[in-house]
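Hello,

Following up on my earlier ticket. Below are the two sequence lines again, exactly as submitted.
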Amino acid sequence: MTIPMQYGLLLAAILFCIGLAGVLVRRDVIFMLMSVEVMLNAAGLAFIVGGAARSSADGQVMFIFILAMAAAEVSVGLALIIQLYQKFKTLDADSASQLNG
Amino acid sequence: MNILFYIAALIAIFATVRMVTGTNAVHSLLYLIVSLLSVSVIFFLLGAPFIAALEVIIYAGAIMVLFVFVIMMLNTGSGGVRKEHELLKASTWIGPGITSAILCGEMLYVLLAPAFHPMNRIEIPPAAVGALLFSKYILIVELAAFLLAAGIIGAYHLGQKPKLSHHRYLKNEEAAT
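Thanks for your patience. The regenerated structure is below:
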């Protein structure tokens, strides 16, 4: 009565691909950042599933590092979004396609 | 017990799809929180109660609150929603959607090919995680501390507003540089 490991990895793969599609399709930077969060969370889920299949704590340790990395990434990303909005008065990522400072 | 895993997995997928396809930022954020909470239920079922608590406290708590604050600060109104409606037509979806679906299908095929390996439901206590974290992975803990410090400094620097100088001389000096 245990769940096969494949099903956990399948869920992680599906969530990762939904997040990937979100990053590719959406042009609103807030939605793109949220989709990146979904992808990071799916990667963490894959680590936890691997750790559960081998009943070791290494997967959980890796999840803690992913969590710290996601927190740092979100804080810098949201600061960049605020800068983008102050400069262009929009959240459209296409408006910042010119790298002229 | 198995049925709980499948229900939580279906809720996670449904909420994530609604988050990606939504047009209102706050509604999408709520769906993302639902998705994170259901993933946290899965962590609990897989015998990782400490990680389940961290997922709720840090991801669904702290990081999502940051998103809420930024959405409140920007206060974009309904103009962005209308533009997103224009962007969410089938013609913009179809290319990235098909490529992501192909990649997803390949991963699912690779995962389903070998024999099934059962996931143990042995609960790993937080003490074991902490002991491993501060013995074998101590170097990565310090690197994560560097990363967080860099994140704090970077967010503070990027989030600063440009200083307004009211004095005529300072304005001229800024214009010259």
